[in-house]
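hey can u check if this looks right to u? its 218 residues, i copy pasted from the old doc so theres a chance i mangled smth
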Amino acid sequence: MFTRLKQSLVVWLIKKVQKYGPRKVLISGRVYEISEDVFNPKFYFTSRFMAEHISVTPEDNVLDMGTGSGIQAVTAGHSGAEVIAVDINPEAVRYAYRNVMANALDDSITVQVGDLFSTLDPQHKFSVILFTPPYLEGTPETLLDKALYDPDKDLLIRFFKEAKEYLRPGGYIQMIYSSIAGNGKAISAAEQSGWNHSIIARAKTLTEEFIIYRLTLG
C-alpha cells in the first residue's frame, strides 16, 4: 500500500511539472526543448543522473532506447560516439531531433520512432545500449504515459530478451531503475534472460532510490 501511494505521488508530481513547467531548460550548459508530452529532463532526477554517468568514446556505437528529450543521446554524441536514439512516442522523437540539431550533432545522431528494437536492423550491433525504462504500475493512455507505466514489467522483460541480438561482444547495457518499482524483480527478470549485473551508481531522493546498472552477457 505504501509503495502504491508513493507511485501515485510520483505520477501526480510528474504530471504537474509536465503541464506547468518550462518548455526550455538548461542542463550542464545545454538547452533542451520539450513539450507537455515529453519528459522534462531538468526536473526528473533520472534524466540528469543517468546523463552524469554516461562514459563513452568516439569508438562506441550507442543505442539510446527511450530517448525522450534526447538528453542521453546528446550527452553520448558530445563524447564523439555514433548514436541511434529511439522512442515509441512520435512527439518525443520530434523534440529529441530538435535538441540534436540545436547541439549540431545531426551528423552523428539519428533519431527514429520505434517500439523497442522493432525498427532496427538486426545486423546493427551496439557497444553500449542506454535504457531509461518506464517502471510504474498502470495502464498507459497518453503519449506521456508510455514513458511512465510498464504493467507487470512486460516491456522490461521484452527488452532483456531482444537486446541480446543487438549488443556487440563485450558490450553492455546501462539502465536506471527505481526502488519504488521493485529493483529486485527487475534484476531477476534480467538474470532469467542471461544478463549479469553490477552497479554503476546509486542515489536517493525524497520519494525513492535510483540505481544505475551495468548489464552484460555471459
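The two ends are 37 Å apart (CA to CA).
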